[in-house]
Structure prediction request, 229 residues.
Amino acid sequence: MIANSHNSFGSVAKVLHWSVAVLVIAVFVLGVYMHELPRADPNREFVYSLHKTLGVVAFFLALLRVLWAVANPVPKPFASPNPSGWHQAEIMLARIVHGLLYGAILALPLTGWIGHAASTRNFAPIRIDPLNSLPFVPQSRALSRAFFEIHHTLPAIMIICLILHIAGALKHHFITQDDTLRRIIPFWKPVGNHPVHRDQPLLHTLVPFCIMGLYLLAVVIALAVILLV
Prediction:
């Protein structure tokens, strides 16, 4: 199934979701690492360049992910066995966190990209040459500094939203025990409605995480081959 349905995510949404996740984590790790490098390090410019390049790729994939989400139905939340006001509040909180997370994932690389395009320095260019400048973005040290300051404040927002997002997914998988996590994992077919694995062995419950880990490893290896070889 390529497109989303009212019960599950399609293959396109799944691939985009996890590809963006891998890229965001990779860019964040590179961002932390590059700030620890001494100025005299011969690899410093390469690491900065890789950070910027992956950041721009992440922006386009995240934008595609958002556009695909707008064009496709969003799977409905699973019904709670004990409906309450808290269940509705939890659904609303999840939507707010999703919105903030999408916003941060788009704004973080975009502000860095604008800061790079406005910079008057020719340091660590993006490895896709036409992307080193942007229309309507003049070269200005003040403009570049302003956007980089915004860029440096956004990771905190993204990390908070990401922690809440992951906590919600784990809560659904291990406590509520519904298909919320399973239906976004590639190559894994959701079992059905609530509950789906309350009496199943721990190994079967952990299968989605094994599939997810293998997929993330495959994406990381593919990126390394494309960018470093």
Helices lie at 11-36, 44-71, 85-118, 141-176, 202-228.
